[in-house]
Amino acid sequence: MLIQSLILAPSSFGLQPWHFIVISNPEMKQKLQTVSWNQAQVGDCSHLFVLCAKTDLNQKDADKLIQLTANNAGIPVENLEQYAGMLTTFLNSKTAEELTNWSQKQVYIALGFLMSMAASLGLDSCPMEGFDPPAYNEILGLDSKGLTATLVLPVGYHGNDKYANAKKNRYSKEELVSFVE
Question: Could you tell me how far CA 33 lies from the centroid of its own chain?
Fold first, then answer.
């Protein structure tokens, strides 16, 4: 179900500019822990999710989505010309760096769905930016795949985590939420 939550996560334009790596190998988790500020949850978790953004998003990705959409809808690709044009315009209006930045923001959407599913299954998770992305990229061979590690999410049961039941330090609703009526 965790994997399915990632597959079904929405993204802008439906482009899904991401890839997910699920690591259960203890040696690999320990290796990654060393480049994650040695945070114990990386090595101790049941499964380590590495959420990656595409760094080479291009017209092929748009064409693939258009073809998939046409196939799933049972319509000719030509019927999606307006949608295809919108995707092409978007991709052509951004630099490679801007597209990678946009893709990384999209990964946060998938993270939310993954964390919600983990919680609904009674699993603990800990979203992390506290890791060395270039080191993850090197260890996992991501650069050659047109990917970059964006977020890490250890998933499992917290065991003896002293913070699991601690009171959360959160600002009040009045400080965080405004209503326009």
Answer: 19
Is residue 64 one of the residues assigned to a domain? no
Q: What's the CA gap between 153 and 111, in Å, rounded? A: 8
Q: For residue 151, what are the domain limits?
A: 2-55+99-157
CA–CA separation, 48 and 2 (whole Å): 12
Please classify residue 145 by burial: count the beta carbons closer than 10 Å to its beta carbon, then call 0-12 exposed, 13-18 middle and 19+ buried. Answer: middle
Domain-located, residue 114: yes
Under DSSP, is residue 12 helix (H, G, I), strand (E, B) or coil?
helix
Distance CA 99, CA 59 (A): 12
Task: Say whether pLDDT at 95 is over 80.
Answer: yes
34: domain CATH number is 3.40.109.10
Give pTM, 2 decimals: 0.93
Answer whether 36's CB lies under 8 Å from 4's CB.
no
Work out the percent of the chain whose per-residue pLDDT is above 90.
93
* Residue-level length of the chain: 181
116-154 tens-digit pLDDT: 999 999 999 999 999 999 999 999 999 999 999 999 999
Cβ distance 4 to 121 under 8 Å?
no
Instruction: Indicate if the pLDDT at residue 112 is higher than 90.
Output: yes
- The reply to whether 80 falls in a domain is no
Q: What is the mean pLDDT of residues 24-32?
A: 98
